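ingest -> validate -> predict -> emit
validate: passed (alphabet ok, no gaps, 160 aa)
predict: started
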Amino acid sequence: MKRFHVHVAVDNLADSIRFYSALFNAQPTVQKDDYAKWMLEDPRINFAISSRGGEPGLDHLGFQVDSDDELAQLHHQLAAADISMVTQTGTACCYAKSNKHWVVDPSGIAWESYHTLSSIPTFNAGEDEPAEAAIACCAPAAPTAESSTTTCCTPGGSCC
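emit:
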């Protein structure tokens, strides 16, 4: 089953956690120094915020799925839109390891479709990879055929 995903860049994480905790009547299910996430059932949404130097506001939208089969179906649907797509396999991002596909809609809004494989201890580094060596993950400005399968970032971007 798909879960709608929204990621918002914020100026002040603590103030935003207080606001969204009140709005959702729930505490974050994941909370770090630079990131918080609510996995809500009503509405079924993965709502994340981060304060990693990006411009405040909507970072990206997406769908989180529960299986590789669902991710393959979304890949097929996105391919039918005939737009550039960036695919990442086993990428480390937002304290999670995931397989994902990125597209940018005609209005410039990034959309992420992903299946989370496991959690990791840092924002964007795998368990066996030092944080300083990690390639940041984030919403692409505009994916191209030349884009790497390990990154789709612009400096200062955020993710998930």
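The longest strand covers residues 110-119.
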